Amino acid sequence: MALTAHLRELRRRLTVCLIVVGAASAVAFWWYDHGLGEFVRGPYCDLPPTCAGTWPAPAACWSPTCWAVHWYD
């Protein structure tokens, strides 16, 4: 197989991978508000306050601003 054929195959595979990752990301982004977020946060948010960390509120641990503030403490 020639080098150009290998490069075409690589381009095709990368394109398929990017499409699949993009579609999965779109589904996960949509599904997060419809139950996935509660499923993912559930075990952490159900911990007793002594084990859950020092976050200001249970849902605040997932906000980007809270991560930025507490990451550099």
Describe this structure in words.
The chain is mainly alpha-helical and 73 residues long. It has two helices and no strands. The protein has one domain (3-71). 70% of the residues lie in helices and 0% in strands. The longest helix has 43 residues, at 3-45. It is elongated, with a radius of gyration of 20 Å. The model has no long low-confidence stretch (mean pLDDT 76).
Question: TL;DR?
Answer:
With 73 residues, this protein is an all-alpha fold.
| Helix amount | 55-70%
Low-confidence stretches: none
**Number of domain units:** 1
The total count of strands amounts to 0
Kindly, what is the distance between the CA atoms of the first and last residues, rounded to a whole number of angstroms?
A: 56 Å
* SSE succession: HH
Overall mean confidence score, pLDDT: 76
Structural class given helices, strands, pairing? mainly alpha
Globally, the shape reads elongated
Secondary structure elements and their pairing?
Layout: H1 3-45, H2 64-71
Attribute tags:
mainly alpha; single chain; 73 residues
